[in-house]
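Inputs:
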Amino acid sequence: MPALRLAYRNVVGKGLRTWLNVAVLSLAYVLIIWHQGIFIGMLRHGSQAMIDYEVGGGQYWHRNYDPLDILSYDDAHGRIPAELSELISKGKATPILIRQAAIYPEARLHSVLLKGIDLSQTVLKIPSHHLKNDKEALPVLIGKRMAKRIAMKIDDYITIRWRDAKGTFDALEGKIVAIMDTPATAVDKGQLWVPLEALQKMVQLENEATLIVVGRDVVSIQDLPEWKFKEPDFLMRDIIEMVRGKRVGAAILYAVLLFLAMLAIFDTQVLAIFNRRKEIGTLMALGMSRGSVILLFTLEGAMNGILAMAVGAIYGIPLLVFTAQRGITLPEVTEEFGFAIPPKLFPFYSVGLIVGTVFIVSLTVTIVSFLPTRRILKMKPTDALRGKMS
Amino acid sequence: MKRIIIFVLLISAGSLHAEELTGKAILERVDGNMVARNRRVTSTMIIEGRRGTRTLQARSWVQGVEKAFTEYLSPPREKGTKMLKLQDQLWIYSPATDRTIKIAGHMLRRSLMGSDVSYEDYMEDPKLSNIYDAKLVGVERVQGRDCYLLDLTAKKENVAYYRRKIWIDKDRYLPLQENRFAKRGNLLKTFVINEVFKIEDRWYPKKMTFKDVMLKGSGTKFIIDSVEFDVEIPKYVFSKASLRR
């Protein structure tokens, strides 16, 4: 305890040098927590949006379905299995049929995916209830990004051309009945949502689907001969991997920042040992063991970390709380990233993130503070008292 | 008595001719005129787009209805691009990337070199009598010539255009105009022969216009610069190796 008090007095006594170290170190604390909080917030939001709009509690894929291979879509359809029909009738699962099509907004060709969804489904947040049967035209639901891309608004008509299951062209007029504002680009871009039953008739694939999304409350899940179940973690692996990659990339920034702080601390420690040779000699002459002197100097260095934590808390906590509550407005360009990013991103600071950051930074500071003090081991008290380094 | 016999004979000959002139018979004659055992064609394609007009020249070797090889000769940007059709498969070689790509699935729906023709249209079996039931529905005048109007309905399930209306020149058996419809009756594409020429006792299109009616623009024009029928085409032409030659 006296060593702690002495260490504190020495650190504060160094004046501006200490506070410069503390400032850089506190910036490292706040920046690491804030930056990582943004990534965690992004992941949480993206995952939730995907679960709400696309993934649900997992998906049964027809054995031919490969979302990365658009060529597979034409053959990726099969009869809805009896094992899942009961879940569907209870509203715990919803089938989706996917077919390729072309639309001609402003007389320009756009390739799109026609996705048939049940009107009464509640498994996904897609507002499929808007797709009420219309004698006039096929009701079509699109996302706001798609609406912007093809310059369409509600009540506009659009010519849709597709091929049925046998390969024959067919075409009809679709009417935009609703435009959904969804953070999930995966259910928005390049897609037209239409009533499942209507699409099945249009392409002559009655009672067939490409994939079946199950609800989050469905627990007993098993693979079926023609249908393979895909877990939510598998379906969201891209966003998880992407955020992980970004976090690793950001770690380089943290490393640079920490390196600067550690360099300053290391330098301060080396200078302190050199300048305080006589003090070290006196302490040892008074009976203090080398270990205790090393502990004192290490504590002085580590105290920079503790002070940085306190200083960082003074300006960091209000900043972090503010951004967590108000969110960070993102530029529109982030909508082009291909996954769910909200217009306002709310960072999330978990206890694990804060404790982990504090632990790593404190440990690094302590190690860096300790390294120069090893020199004390070689010091002879008599030389030190005379101001010599032995 | 002699006059009566001649009259009866003339009537019989007339009814025999009428029997022959079924939609099917007309379509078969058109196929006979348009499809050759082998042919070598040099053609020009004029694409009128939003950013201006592009003119492409190509040389093609065609064997029956199943094999075709096309090499683009100009403009410099497209020069050396080659296409090979073998039955229902299509490959494209691009000299810029030195790669051969198989065109399949949704890519077949894409436009051929930015024209109104899709790869699917290029791949289509040109022998219409193979895939359509034809019904003669009347006689109309098109481009100042008397034409049979045929209503074609797909007899197979995997036919791109379920229905077509074709106006066929009564004397030359050339489809002067053609409308292609979707299953629900929407007009999708039109094809017009603007000029014809006679070669080796057969009438053949000289200038044609192909138009995707859902797209803006005045369509894509094709001009046959030269055509030779029943020429010998070496076997290697219809091989994938010839794409990189």
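The two ends of chain A are 29 Å apart (CA to CA). Flag for discussion at group meeting.
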